[in-house]
Amino acid sequence: MRLELIPVILGVLIVLVAAGIIYDAAFPESIRPFRERRRRQRAERDTVGQWFVGLGIACLGVSMIGNEVWRWTTIVVMVGVALVIVGAVMNRAYLREVLTFRGAARRGSSDESMPEPPHLKLRIR
């Protein structure tokens, strides 16, 4: 195998990942096979933002396939990075929840506050 084929193979894998992201964005929520098992409400995904991320990743994969011989590589990379950034900004609430949520999940809506525990007077003998 020639060394020049490694970026092409990686580019094809990246385009396949992008196709999976785009398929997930296009797949309707109503026919998903699972039910919600989390205790707290999930942040909503923006499907248009997910499309932008998928298209941006596809552009980056195509630029790897094109190598340095393709004359549009620089433009495709800039467009791909811009699409990924715009898609990430559109999905910032979802990404924030996925990346930073570490607390215990609570049942009920976010409007309900947890009742305060009764103040117990502790006696130390």
Number of helices: 4
Largest sheet data = none
Overall structural class, as computed from helix and strand content, comes to mainly alpha
Distance between the termini: 79 Å
Question: What's the topology here?
Answer:
Elements lengths: L4 H22 L20 H20 L6 H18 L1 H9 L25
Helix pairs in contact: 1-2, 2-3
Write out key terms for the chains shown:
125 residues; mainly alpha; 4 helices; 55% helix
Describe this structure as you would to a colleague.
The protein has 125 residues and is mostly helical. The protein is 55% helix and 0% strand. The protein has four helices and no strands. The protein has helices at residues 5-26, 47-66, 73-90, 92-100. The longest helix is centred in the first third of the chain and has 22 residues, at 5-26. The radius of gyration is 23 Å and the shape is elongated. The chain starts with a helix and ends in a 25-residue tail after the last helix. The model has no long low-confidence stretch (mean pLDDT 81).
Question: Outline of this structure?
Answer:
With 125 residues, the chain is an all-alpha fold. 55% of the residues lie in helices and 0% in strands.
